[in-house]
TrEMBL record:
Keywords for the protein's UniProt record, in alphabetical order: Cell membrane, Membrane, Sugar transport, Transmembrane, Transmembrane helix, Transport
Pfam family, one: BPD_transp_1
Keyword set includes Membrane: yes
Record-stated family: Belongs to the binding-protein-dependent transport system permease family.
Domain ABC transmembrane type-1 per the UniProt entry, residue ranges: 77-291
Membrane-spanning parts: 16-37, 76-102, 114-135, 211-233, 239-261, 273-292
Main localization category: membrane
Subcellular location: Cell membrane
Cross-referenced InterPro entries: MetI-like (IPR000515), MetI-like_sf (IPR035906)
PANTHER family according to UniProt: BLR7065 PROTEIN, SPERMIDINE_PUTRESCINE TRANSPORT SYSTEM PERMEASE PROTEIN
Descriptive protein name: Multiple sugar transport system permease protein
Gene Ontology terms describing biological process: transmembrane transport
Membrane topology value: Multi-pass membrane protein
Length: 300
């Protein structure tokens, strides 16, 4: 007789929970854990082109010696942090302002919310190609508007001027990313009980007082999650930068993701590219943990 387990019994209920979680854990191990371990392994080998089934090279730390001793890495790290600060900060600010705007009651609010979400719905590569045409220094729409309005006396070379190229990348990433921030923050705003605002009005609190003492404290957890998502998105984003500037000019927009691509698929140094990828993963984990921990402390 085959022994059976009564999962309804109190002592076996935990086992039933583990049994239900087992397929998800196995799936995560296959699609997340294994690629991470493989990337770490490749980063410690002198691999030019990775092939499935190869016996592999002996492990070495030469790729990490190159990683921390190369000026390319530190420059890409500096550009990445600048991009995170500018894009992340402005995306959250604009998203918060937009969320508060469309949270008000006015005619056409549903259409306004749909309009806010449109940039996020457009495929990233398609949107970036359109912006690349609009920012072209010869026949782009942006330069035409600036010249016609008299704001500039000559076309801005978004493709060859380092400062202009970085600003263009920031602008397109903010345009693409702020709708998601707005939607998440709008959901947070709608979860704040209306009774708190009514009680504050009765006590004579003004608009800024209600925002500072009611809206902001209630929104801190949502803002924390939003900042984490924005940071991770900017860290890993590749398509916008590659289509607009390909990391140039003069490395002005070369982030860690662009450096990973260059080392792996342009110079065929996949060991070094994997090392940059591992560094990116570790930095994302540290920053996410720091942001979540800080927001959790501020809430309590």
């Amino acid at each position: 007789m085959i022994p059976t387990i009564d999962f309804s019994a109190p002592r076996h209920r935990a086992k039933f929970g583990y049994l239900l979680l087992a397929p998800a854990v196995l799936l995560m191990a296959v699609i997340i854990v294994y690629p991470i371990l493989l990337s770490v392994s490749i980063s410690m080998q002198d691999v030019r082109i990775a092939r499935i089934g190869d016996s592999g090279e002996p492990w070495t730390l030469e790729n990490y010696q190159w990683l921390f001793g190369s000026g390319e890495t530190w420059h890409a790290l500096w550009v990445t942090f600048k991009l995170v600060a500018v894009v992340g900060g402005l995306s959250v600010i604009i998203g918060f302002a937009t969320a508060m705007l469309v949270n008000q009651k006015f005619r056409g609010r549903a259409a306004a919310r749909l309009f806010v979400a449109l940039p996020w719905a457009v495929p990233e590569v398609v949107a970036t190609v359109i912006w690349a045409w609009m920012l072209d220094s010869s026949f782009g729409l942006v330069n035409w508007v600036l010249l016609t309005s008299g704001l500039v006396s000559e076309p801005i070379a978004f493709g060859s001027n380092p400062t202009a190229a970085f600003a263009a990348v920031c602008f397109v990433m903010i345009w693409k990313g702020y709708p998601l921030m707005s939607i998440m923050l709008l959901a947070g705003l709608q979860s704040i009980p209306e009774e708190q605002y009514q009680a504050a009005k009765v006590d004579g609190a003004g608009v800024w007082q209600r925002f500072w003492y009611i809206t902001l404290p209630n929104m801190l957890p949502v803002v924390g999650v939003t900042m984490v998502m924005t940071t991770l998105w900017v860290f890993r984003d590749f398509a916008i930068i590659h289509v607009l500037t390909q990391g140039g000019p003069l490395g002005a927009t070369t982030t860690l993701s662009i450096l990973t691509f260059e080392q792996s698929f342009e110079f065929f140094r996949m060991g070094q590219g994997a090392a940059v990828g591992v560094l990116t993963m570790v930095l994302c984990a540290i920053i996410s943990r720091a942001l979540v921990g800080r927001m959790a402390k501020s809430v309590h």
